[in-house]
Amino acid sequence: MDNLTNYLLVSAVLFTLGLYGVVTRRNGVAVLMGVELILNAANVNFLAFARFGGNNMAGHVYALFVIVLAAAEAAVALAIIINIFNNFNTINIDDVSELKQ
Amino acid sequence: MAETVFWIIVGITVGSAFMVVQSKSLLYSAYALLFTFVGVTGLYIFLWADFLAVVQIVVYIGGILILIIFGIMLTNKITSVNISHTSMQKSVGAIVVLGLIGVLGYMVLKTPWIVLANSEPAETTKAIGRLLMMEYLLPFEAASLLLLGALIGATTLSRKEN
Question: What is the value of pTM for the model shown?
Answer without folding.
Answer: 0.89
